[in-house]
Amino acid sequence: MLLLQQTGAVLALTVAVRGAASSTTTSIQLTQSLLPQVGAAPSLTPTIHDSKAPDPQTCPGYMAANVVETPQGVTADLTLAGPHCQAFGTDIHDLVLQVQYQAKERLSVKIYPKYLSVQNETHYILPNFIVPSPENDNSTTKSKSDLGFEWSNTPTFQFKVSRVSNKEELFSTYGHVLVYEDQFLELVSNMVEDYNVYGLAENIHDFHLGQNYTQTFWTNDAGITSGNPIDGNIYGVHPFYQESRYHSGSNTSSHGVYARNAHGQEWLLRPKTITYRAIGGSFDFYFLSGQDDNGGSSAVDTIRQYHAGCVGLPAMQMFWTLGLHQCRLGYDNLSMMQDVVANYKAANIPLEAIWSDFDMFDGYRSFVNNPVSYPVDKMAAWLEKLHDDSQYYVPLIWTNIYRTNPEDPEDVYPPYQRGADLQTFIRNPATGDYYNGDNWPGFSVWGDFLLQSSYSWWENELRTWHNKIPFDGVLSDLSEPASYCVGSCGDGNLHLNPVHVPELMPGDLLNNDYEYPKGFSISNKSDAASASLAAASQSSALLSSTPFPSATSTTLGRTEPTPGVRNLTYPPYVLNNAQEGHALVKGTISPDATHNDPGNTTEYEMHNLFGYQTGNATYHALLEILPNRRPFAISRAAFSGSGRFSSHWGGDNSATWGSMFLGISHSLTHMMAGIPMFGVDACGYTHNTDFDLCSRWMSLTAFFPFYRNHNIKGTIPQEAYIWSSVAEASRRAISVRYSLLNYIYTLFYQAHTKGDTVMRALAWEFPNDETLKATYSQFMLGPSLLVTPVLTPNSDTVRGVFPGIGEGTRWYDWYTLQEVNAQPRENVTLAAPLEHINVHARGGSIFVLQEPGYTTAATRDNSFSLLATLDNNQYAEGIIYIDDGVSLVQNATKTVSFIYENGAIIASTHGTYHAPPALANFTIAGLHTEPRGFQFRSNNKLYHSRPGNLNYKNGTAYITGLEQYTSTGAFEHSFQLNLTY
């Protein structure tokens, strides 16, 4: 039964007032005087939609002179080729071109101002100490490179990058001018017809980006109640794309482009061209050939080259993080959280980790437990028991820091005071004081992570809290960074702290969510009707009572560039920012706020890097707090290279079928971005789910790398045990996931060591099938598992393709091991009852499985089994990586490789790590001939099958009873098993 909350016209809110020794709550009526002055960011017309905006391609461009070409690269001076244009800033007259053949597969092209000065902030170039740039291997020369660089001065400077092997142009500015101004950069590249571009994370968009799409990069708190905007800028900035080209009768070719620039920017994908624009910085391009040692090129190799050569290989995850996580903004006290853990256990739904949202904070302040609802002593005692049960706890923290009320001596917040003592917060240049924005606790400040003192301060706050509450990982939220007013609105208002944010909080009166997914009115008619009435009542109440002042928005036309002057808050080029009004000052720290480094670097330069820096700080803090334990650090905002220290999740998605569907492409683009530990909130974060959607979503995300159920206050509960159908769907999907934990963990190891991806697009695994280039309603987990989820309401079937069948690939139903009978490129209709998700194993694969337990630790203690799904040549192979699952530096590891051919499987072990569980079973699917028995040889001993140890049915052999031969550990020794006929 749907539980509806009563709405009313009068709004009263409680504000926590923290005293020196106790915490109380006082109910106050909000008035205009108690609110921060929100202000109104002017409404701007994004340049891409402004028909009156100047065309940068009418600018004069540049001419190259003093050109020096060597085997290592090219250098030249670039000089403005005509009168100043000043389309969106002040023209930079003199530039430097620097081209390097950095590695066989990578070419670097840099263009930057000739006259740089540390004190000249108009020419901020991204430093290597913040975001490392790809390194030159100092051995590659033009003659050894996959890529060639050509340039021309006709009519002005232009360049192109091509493959040496076949002269294929990969990037060409020919026919377009280069534009370089202090607040605007532009390069235009010609593209082939019907080009196929992927990446440019973070976006909620089709996986195949198409040719009528603009990607805006300006990290953005998209909105806690509305959900992520489709096609709008959200939390991450990864200026990397991969392009694939299909060639009839020959192999597909792929390459990549990485633009190392952290300024606000846009990529305009249009027919025949891609236009790159940035509001500062430099051109710092890296072109990746995607070629392997055999001369072919692929999306997979391009992505590897980006990870390994450009942004760094991703961090390795702890084994336990692969379990199911549960969180909610709405666990109002410790008892509720304890009940959730107990209810999962009672429902026999494996739960690995419980999370807390900001409910637990005292006055919404990070690092401080609410002493009434989350008392430190009781919580610490409970966490000890949780750890004894091999379960874990992860809290959310905010990067905003409450600033205390200077007129209230009892308003004490040590994390602020300790940071203030270090002078480590971002500043307001108008006053010289700290920048006082607004967030959930009230007026807030933000750490300046250009200072080493901020890293020390951040570590100290995490350590101080961890000493009281022994958490196992940390999620850094609102790290865009988010601020809910325009400008330094706390100036002169700090005496009002603590103050409510200038909007209703989720779950407040008049802010309950009554939206349900499509199909709900069919499966839940009465509840849908009740929700509709409640929504209408709430809407009526809101119209008659407006407790928060509405800000009037003024329209500001495009600002004209002034020579020698930069407008940081309203730059002449207007990004298509998803915030209301499109202004850069909306929803975040103002771009003119300054840091404390010698150059007083502004947020205009650093905005897109705040989440990257706080993620880095959190990672290293956890390393100090928990030495030699891999940090589990998740950050909502990210930049290229964040995967080296942070994981990420999809943020504020919504409980809709479309959001679930787009979660697949969202995940795939993060595999490209080098953040393999990625997932979206199962069942949706905003709005209400239902049993149909939640069943499908819990099944789907069981095959995502990061698996978490999470939703917002003011909506109905959606833990997996709430509905019987969701509970059963979750148990079944988790059983498959947990049996595959070693397979998934090995994928993470390969990502960490080689730059592979954990989730994969079908087009990556079957690159020559052009029909798959836009397919993402299905995906692969690693190279061997095909997942076909239901993505539509009230359905009991789903359609999917089985790639490679025309070229000899075999596919097996995971549950029955029966081979799929399908035609090449056929869309096959598959049965999909509510509790079932279709999973198929690829022929030619060997999986190392374990009997699923309630936790990942219990699973690791259970016996191993092997599953071989044979290809047409009766061949299969696989690999497993094993270690202790926790340590950053391992004392011992083990890798076991498996090959099945000619009726025998050979397991070759390398390394000394000891995994105690025995090998119990070996299943072989797809056999052409029925075997009669087997021989097992290990540690110089030969064993023969016994009656009942081998059964055969429908092409599958089931071998059991192997424990007696492997009692010292399944992979303690290499072994060979031969079938006998």
TrEMBL record:
Tell me where in this chain the Glycosyl hydrolase family 31 C-terminal domain is found: 755-846
> By its UniProt entry, which CDD domains does this protein fall under?
GH31_MGAM_SI_GAA, GH31_N
For molecular function, the Gene Ontology terms on record are: alpha-1,4-glucosidase activity; carbohydrate binding
Put simply, this protein is called: alpha-glucosidase
Pfam families reported for this sequence: Glyco_hydro_31_2nd, Glyco_hydro_31_3rd
PANTHER family in the cross-refs? ALPHA-GLUCOSIDASE, P-TYPE DOMAIN-CONTAINING PROTEIN
Cited InterPro entries: Gal_mutarotase_sf_dom, GH, Glyco_hydro_31_C, Glyco_hydro_31_TIM, Glyco_hydro_b
